[in-house]
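Entry 0007
Protein: Cell shape-determining protein MreB
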Amino acid sequence: MSLLTLDHLRRCTMAVDLGASRTRVYLKQSGLLVDEPSVVAMSTRSGALIAVGTPADRMAGRTPDSIRVVRPVNGGTVVDIEMAQRMLRAMIGSRLRRSWRRRTVQRAAVCVPHDADPLARRAAWETLAGLGARRVELVDSLLTAGIGCGLPVEEPEAAMIVQCGAATTEVAVLSLGSVVAAEKVPMGGETIDRALTQYLRNTHELLLLRHAVRPLHDALARTAHQETEVHGQDVVTGRARTVRVDPERLREAVRMPVTSLLDAIRAVLHRCPPDLVADLADRGVVLTGGGALLPGLDATIRENTGMPVRVAGDPALCAVLGLGRMLEGSVRAAGARPEPEEAGEGRPEPAQDAEPAPAGAEPTPAR
Ligand SMILES: Nc1ncnc2c1ncn2[C@@H]1O[C@H](COP(=O)(O)OP(=O)(O)OP(=O)(O)O)[C@@H](O)[C@H]1O
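Output (structure tokens):
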């Protein structure tokens, strides 16, 4: 994270985190503007938007043939650019006056996964450019999450972050404003939900209702034999049925995804120089992302690594709030002089983390 990058970011007015589960938008000097499910409901006949965000999410699994529910982001990557643009435009448009909207989106910053390939970076860039952004800065979401949870990422002492998203979890060691080592596992909140749903289907022949998964999360932290009642639909008869499940069986059901996360933490530790590992023993691990709220996850990591583990405050908002802090100018670059405003002046160059504007691609005018 160079002075130049921070200088470019300070000129942005809008910070965006396009997540598989939720979309968040932070407005400079105003705070969090949008925090809504990344979901769009559209008419299959006319293609018109019917609902966006929370109301669209409520429709999922209940729609007639005339309505299609679309999730334009998958694993932190925009997979349907046009739909992501329509979703963002509707979310921002409903909260900002038209005159403000144009000015706000002109310079935007967006979080991208650490290992985002050129296509994924281009998709994030195009989504924002299509909204009218003339300049789009792409910033590593591991750094923004680290800043958002209060880690002094610009210092030489190492810190470990585990960013638990909906579809994936990223483990990283941060030092001097950059990522020293990182691993990604295809395990997230959705993977845990799928494992619990499959367990109930295979063992109890019960189909779980979409909103009945959350109580099972709480059950994961209970002691053995403290059974939990689960309501669902019988696979064979199709009728409503209730079963009682032991928390120990639920923990077994999610053991595989959790073990893959523990393996990733070990792999990252092995790749770190000994001095940084010594820092981690003192500073421990911080869990960010909505999946960090899974009851008992922090305790499991603590038991298996022997390191102190804490869940960040508002973990799901860390990435966007961290990017917001960069926009507000409250982050110092590694080894920065005290007056960062004066740095970066002079010849304008592309920011280190920014995607260069693709050749021939003019920013689309605001609609
Ligand atoms: N209280 C909770 N207990 C357990 N899991 C939770 C809780 N709250 C949110 N989650 C899970 O967190 C996940 C969403 O996290 P987050 O909002 O960080 O994801 P995202 O940024 O949209 O996704 P990604 O980073 O994968 O693109 C969901 O899968 C959700 O089930």
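Curator remark: Confidence is low (pLDDT under 50) at residues 337-367. The chain has three domains: 3-146+318-342, 154-187+255-315, 194-253.
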